[in-house]
Amino acid sequence: MIEKPAPLSVNQVSIRRGFWAERQAVNRQRTIPAIYRQLEETGRLKAWSLQRTHPIPKDRGTVYMFWDSDTGKWLESVAYSLATHPDDALQSLADELIDAVAGAQQADGYLNTYFPVLAADAKWTNLRDWHEMYNAGHLIEAAVAYSQATGKDKLLAVLSRFADHIDATFGPDDGQARGYPGHPELELALVKLYRHSGERRYLDLANYFINERGQAPHYFDIEAAERGEKREDFWAQTYRYCQAHAPIREHTEATGHAVRACYLYAGIADVALETGDAELLDVSRRLWDDLTQHQMYVTGGLGPAHSNEGFTFAYDMPTETAYAETCASIALAFWAQRMFHLDPDSRYIDVMERAIYNGSLAGLSHDGETFFYANPLASYPRVNPYSRWSGITTDEHYRRQPWFFCPCCPPNISRLIAGIGEYLYSQMGDRVYAHLYQDSTASLKVAGGAVQLEQRTDYPWRGDIDFTIRCEQPRDFELALRLPDWCAEYSLSLNGAAVDVDKQRGYLVLGRSWSDGDRVSLCLSMPVERVLPHPDIRQAAGQLALQRGPLVYCLEEADNGGRLANVAIPPAAEFSASFDDDLLGGASVIQGKALRSEANGDSPALYRYQRGAEQTPAEFEFKAVPYYLWANREPGEMRVWMRSS
Amino acid sequence: MIEKPAPLSVNQVSIRRGFWAERQAVNRQRTIPAIYRQLEETGRLKAWSLQRTHPIPKDRGTVYMFWDSDTGKWLESVAYSLATHPDDALQSLADELIDAVAGAQQADGYLNTYFPVLAADAKWTNLRDWHEMYNAGHLIEAAVAYSQATGKDKLLAVLSRFADHIDATFGPDDGQARGYPGHPELELALVKLYRHSGERRYLDLANYFINERGQAPHYFDIEAAERGEKREDFWAQTYRYCQAHAPIREHTEATGHAVRACYLYAGIADVALETGDAELLDVSRRLWDDLTQHQMYVTGGLGPAHSNEGFTFAYDMPTETAYAETCASIALAFWAQRMFHLDPDSRYIDVMERAIYNGSLAGLSHDGETFFYANPLASYPRVNPYSRWSGITTDEHYRRQPWFFCPCCPPNISRLIAGIGEYLYSQMGDRVYAHLYQDSTASLKVAGGAVQLEQRTDYPWRGDIDFTIRCEQPRDFELALRLPDWCAEYSLSLNGAAVDVDKQRGYLVLGRSWSDGDRVSLCLSMPVERVLPHPDIRQAAGQLALQRGPLVYCLEEADNGGRLANVAIPPAAEFSASFDDDLLGGASVIQGKALRSEANGDSPALYRYQRGAEQTPAEFEFKAVPYYLWANREPGEMRVWMRSS
Question: Given an 8 Å threshold on Cβ–Cβ distance, is B604 in contact with A293?
Fold first, then answer.
């Protein structure tokens, strides 16, 4: 019996058709190779030889300090892919890179491609900004994944040594520095390393990092003083930026850089689960409620502001300039999954699903080779969410790019897709939770024996999900099927007969002695839903969004013409959903009647006085497409929130 | 007979009661002294002794290079005030400052408090950024105004010498540099100096500056090369920022820094009027149409973006983050008045009135001692139009400030108010145009003799305007009364009998032989108007603004509670206007029924699915106040554009 709730691993879940099978194929065939090419072309692979081959610009040098994380995320994506789709050529490529990584390790275990070559004396002198620990975290995640996928432990050994070096260098003891990561990520990676290796010291180090964070005297002040700087010199102005403004147990709201925040919160949930620290569970719930009730886009996007790549204040949801970094939605999914394991309730998985299918997936093009960093909720020519325009006007639209100077998002979405199998199920003792529905076969040990769950579904396009249980002998366990928050009506049957079961914290729980061939059918009604914003979201006031199943929809100019701000959805409008085979490999679209206000004749007047009756707005048939698919056709306007007439 | 159309001067128009009399009293009693104190405290007055008394921060030094313009604008405001309200103490203070200014003049005529003291070698080496010509312009405007108001020519002599120095230094001849102002302003000042002195060379220099601007080889490139810099090093990235991207005759749209743009365009209109250059008239009309049909806020605010303090692209009108600098609305009023003289049509004055009563006047507090630089069209706690928030959240509201590091706006609004008399009338031959209605007495020479126009009105609160003509002998001239664009119905009577007269380019023209005591009564119907935005203004789609007479209104939290984004005006709503004696010295307010959507019960949900009938929005009585009066009571939300339900 498994004591603590845990996800079924990538190795346990086979995905061969359906939504995620298609996305994974593109990831294998296009995204993983494209990212490798970029790693190579930008010098990131060569950097492991510890020979400086690319000049580093003076004013943007810090980005070069976290090159290693890109290698880490690519290797992690490759590991998940190899686990489900063995590929000798790809594995050789990864092995070769792992050899290079190993070759870069210093005698004391330290591992980094920047400092030994360019600034050996500056090693560990700026944890706040210089990301050595962040790199370590991503490489550790890769090492654990690669070990699990291939059984090869070379990278794991290297990273374990690096982790030991960090553990020796930082901590509360004499001769140690009381530091912790400026960019959290290492915390959750250390818990992975602990779970994989069983070495308690890695969990203890993660626990130390979390609890030391924000304590007085402030470590970032201390290291700044050693560099001859003051707190006031901090470019981000406030430690809220990196969630180090107060000890973590005193935090009441999600603050600062959104990706840092969610990686940290995910690490806290991991540590709370492993240590049973009830206060950390309380902190986690408090931060979760704040974030999901005050600071989350309807797409699961996080962080409205470019200036701090993060949070501003409650209900602040600008649309065109939304930063909503792809990585932040991915990090939210990570955190959500961990919250479920800490506090098993579907409300976490509802958010996880929203973040994965919308805010995260929009970060990748349909062809798998270009990426969004920022994910606005409305798009107009000449408007770029990265920054308020400079007065230099072009007619350009905001489009996905093949790479970024700081390319954290491309390998992040790649590893999420490659590892999506891990988000489908969790197991807690003799209960198996099904979270995200996906055509797949899961293999697990439950109630003392091997069981397979065969799942057949066209989710997210359709709400019918059929499970067949495969087991050599009858097994007594519970199958807990998630009832998504968007679903108001459903039916459930067991071996063809309707059953009525308890809903426990958002899951339909069927407990029985299962026999081979038992069938469970869940039918989730999936109408088009009008989503209404909280009235304090001033940027969405009087507007609605359309959602069907887990997918948030948007209007694009390609289907509806431009001037989308003038489109309004009447209260009585009826919508129909249909599957459009021709839309980017096939996707459900929503159609219905909308109104469009147009210019008053040919008057060029910028403002006019309303005198007498206004022209009746023209009715037209609109077509909405899933938000994650936007900007894959000809450039044009896009809107998620539509005026409600 | 006056050949060219010209405004009646400040000296000719006496304002003793009514709207502008009140604003002028506050300006004399509070604003002029407050600005003087700031000039003194910040070292700007002492700077004229050419002794450096304040340390100059390395990274913000350029602002110190245009300190002199603040002195110039304050002296100009004082001059207008002395012209209408003599004040010995104030005049002594001004004379003392003028002595100091004169004492700072170099042997060659050069005048600047920065360069001779801090960077003598850098004189005239960066016309693009360093504002020596901009300072000269503002001081010249002050000198002309002071001469006209007081008859004292000391400052005029100083500035004429400086103008001569500039004229000798810059120009097309051998030994001259082909430079022109990076921040336009000197052009219009030189035309003022020409008109006052009759010295044609000042007009010629203005004409040269305008025509040389943007020519190849580009002067800003040449001087940059001499400083060892390249065009690409220009911090603003593009010469569109300073309207020097192309020769002026090729410009097709208003670009860049809004204040620079309108000062330049005003100078072009001046030169076009004086030279009769028909092509410059065409350019002026083209730029005017672009700006007023594509890039102007309903308040007459200009320039949506902080990044360039200026224009972005057509129909781009963000509300909360609108920059809409006070100075830009003032500069628009300057340009509009000059366009009228070039092309006498009320459409220019309609914009001038809009810019003065709304975008400009909002820049000053009711008490006259605090100022807005940026003038957003919606305001929420924590949102500051200067910059996208930094992630450092406070609950602060955007409020007027006593001063700014770059304090161009305070003395600018002060000089506009002090000199408002100049915007009331124009004269062209034997036609007298009345533009802005205001209780006043105008004294002029027309048809060979002295005439006084006594105007009695409570404009802008009421639309009744009564003129009485005073003249010793009958005089044959035309009185042209502006019919504002917001006025759909009016009546006109002459000596008590209704008259029907031609409307000529927006003016009701009454031509006759006028006798002493003749009375003209114009009654402008002044209902509450719904203003609708062009459908391409995406930020105002589905919304309306309220206007009555020339005043744009807004909702403030002080009257209506918060959450103003959830207020909607029903199509059938009726409005009433009434004068509220208690509102900040008395002002007309608008009341009517509106709907307010509120949260769905106590649910904290950020988003919800609409299932079944929605709660009917609550009806409430709203109260709108003139936009220029916002942020004078307790801090709170504000909105100009309101949702139309």
Answer: yes
